[in-house]
Amino acid sequence: MYILDMAGKKPKFQKEKQIFTEYIQKSGLRHTAQRDVILEIFLRTEAHLSSEDLYWLVQKEDQSVGHTTVYRTLKLLTEAGLAREVRFGDGKTYYEHHYEHAHHDHMICTECGKVIEFFSAEIEALQDEMADKFGFKPTHHSLRILGLCEDCQKRDSATAASGAQPRVRVRSVVGN
Ligand SMILES: [Zn+2]
Ligand SMILES: [Zn+2]
Ligand SMILES: [Zn+2]
């Protein structure tokens, strides 16, 4: 059985929901309505979300869902291969879509928290080459480039010139 959206149109995220249901069953967990809500909102949101971010998005639709449930569900989504953990250097863990989303790396603005996604076949190939050279078998990687985005360079070139290591503050998708 598939969950239809409100308008009764074609089921959305059918494949993702099926993967999650199978994972839940395999893990011997119960199917819960709260997890469904969390999954739905996660899939709808194309962004880098911390568990707090997702919690606040879920709160707008279902106030009975607690933070711990959101956190645990994100862990399950990651194990099921639907989500992927990303870290941007601000000490927090963010989650983004993984299933049928091509590999990419990130540039993070340390001033405004903007995150730019990029992919370079050349960089990827060079990383493999380097691993080869050291007899290293890579399983996954995340390349993170920290710096200032175009806007922030224009806004305050004075801060950039100070040489101080700025703290990373990733911009939240909630309340911005
Ligand atoms: Zn990469
Ligand atoms: Zn910026
Ligand atoms: Zn990303």
Give the helices and strands, then pairings.
Layout: H1 14-26, H2 33-44, E1 49-50, H3 51-59, H4 67-79, E2 83-87, E3 93-97, E4 105-109, E5 115-118, H5 121-133, E6 144-147, H6 150-155, H7 157-161
Parallel strand pairs: 4-6
Antiparallel strand pairs: 1-3, 2-3, 4-5
Helix pairs in contact: 2-3, 2-4, 3-4
Quick summary:
Helix content is 40%, strand content 14%. The chain is of the alpha+beta class.
How is this structure best described in words?
By secondary structure, this protein is α+β, with helices and mostly antiparallel strands. Helices cover 40% and strands 14% of the residues. It is built from seven helices and six strands; from the N terminus they run ααβααββββαβαα. Strand 4 and strand 5 form a beta hairpin. It is globular. The N terminus is likely disordered. One zinc ion binds next to loops. One zinc ion binds next to helix 6.
The CATH architecture of the largest domain comes to: Orthogonal Bundle
Tell me the total number of β-strands.
6
List the strand order in the largest sheet: 1-3-2
- The helix/strand order is HHEHHEEEEHEHH
Total domains: 2
Strand content: 5-15%
Largest sheet: 3 strands, antiparallel
Question: Which hetero compounds are present in the coordinates?
Answer: zinc ion
Q: According to CATH, what is the class of the largest domain?
A: Mainly Alpha
Q: What is the C-alpha radius of gyration, as a whole number of Å?
A: 19 Å
Mean pLDDT over all positions: 87
> Regions with pLDDT < 50 over 5+ consecutive residues?
1-6
> Helical region count?
7
The termini sit apart by: 37 Å
- Helical content band: 40-55%
What general form does the structure show? globular
Based on secondary structure, the structural category is alpha+beta
* CATH-assigned homologous superfamily of the largest domain: Winged helix-like DNA-binding domain superfamily/Winged helix DNA-binding domain
CATH topology of the largest domain: Arc Repressor Mutant, subunit A
